[in-house]
Every structure is written in structure tokens, then in C-alpha cells.
Design goal:
The protein contains three helices and six strands, in the order H-H-E-E-E-E-H-E-E. With 173 residues, it is an alpha+beta fold.
Length: 173
């Protein structure tokens, strides 16, 4: 074979090798039903049931109070005790605000008493608090019934057990 012929054969092999389709994962095969993970489905259903139970528990607690509670973002029941100084504005993302927080379990036992500076939008506050803190101005106070999944979640903290619905009293300073 001549050099030109070898060049054509090698080019043909390279082109043929480059055009092969990569093997597909089983989930990408056409015509096959996706694999169902029964454990994953069971966990999703359990999680759904737990969130529904938390929402029902907090709704009942809110309805039993003397103060009027309303449902806010993150399924947080909140009563605004004092809106604060309306001339001061409301918290915005990336702003640092001083927040006093008292966190109780649903039996009224104090779990955390803190007073510190928090930068909003940086997940330094529980999600349920951060989602609704813009309802207040400096000096504002509120009491929130926060479900576990927008409070401290499945891990909890040293002071708050996992899956704990909590009562959070906040004051913007």
C-alpha cells in the first residue's frame, strides 16, 4: 500500500471511531420504564405525612391563641406584636440587622435566647423567620409558630432536636 492509501485508511478508522455513540445509562434507554426505588418513595411519603402533621399541629395552636395569627410564607403562623418604626424601613437581603430571638418548644420550654447581628439572605436565621422578617421594621416584634422544615429541619441543633416545631419570638433592633 502506498502512503496515501495508509493515510486514507487511518483517517477512515479515526472517523469511524469518533462517530460511535457512547453507551447509555439504563435510565436513558428508549422504551424502558424508569426504575422505581420503593425505599425512596416510602421516604418521600413519610416526609409528606410529617409535614402535613406539623402544619396541622401549628394551625391548631394558632387557632387556640388569644392574639390573631395569620399564615405566612413557609407555613409560618405569625402574629405581629409591634410593627416597629415604619420610618426605619424593612430588612432587605444582604443587610445586617440585630435580631433578638427567643426560641421555645411547643410546651413553652426556652431552648435558645440569642441577641446578635445577622446578615439576611445568608441562611443565618431559620428559613421561616427570614422569609417573613420583612413584615417588621426596626423595633418590631413578632411571635411565630414555625414548622420543623422551615426551622431547624431534620438535623436540629445542640439545643433543638430534629423535627422540632418551634415558637420563635423575634425583635428587630
Amino acid at each position: 500500500m502506498s502512503g496515501k492509501t495508509w493515510l486514507i485508511v487511518i483517517a477512515g478508522l479515526l472517523i469511524a471511531g469518533c462517530s460511535r455513540q457512547a453507551p447509555q445509562r439504563p435510565s436513558q434507554r428508549m422504551g424502558e420504564a424508569p426504575q422505581v426505588d420503593s425505599v425512596q418513595l416510602a421516604l418521600l411519603e413519610l416526609n409528606r405525612q410529617m409535614t402535613v402533621a406539623a402544619d396541622q399541629q401549628l394551625a391548631q395552636l394558632a387557632q387556640a391563641q388569644d392574639e390573631p395569627y395569620a399564615l405566612y410564607e413557609g407555613n409560618v403562623w405569625m402574629t405581629i406584636l409591634d410593627r416597629g418604626n415604619e420610618e426605619e424601613g424593612t430588612p432587605a437581603p444582604n443587610e445586617e440587622w440585630r435580631v433578638a430571638m427567643r426560641i421555645y418548644d411547643l410546651n413553652g420550654r426556652l431552648l435558645i435566647d440569642s441577641d446578635g447581628s445577622y446578615r439576611l439572605g445568608k441562611q443565618e436565621l431559620p428559613l421561616g423567620v427570614e422569609a417573613n422578617i420583612d413584615e417588621l421594621h426596626r423595633g418590631g416584634k413578632a411571635r411565630m409558630f414555625v414548622p420543623w422544615y422551615t426551622a431547624y429541619g431534620v438535623t436540629g441543633t445542640d439545643a433543638i432536636p430534629p423535627y422540632e416545631n418551634v415558637i420563635i419570638e423575634i425583635e428587630l433592633k
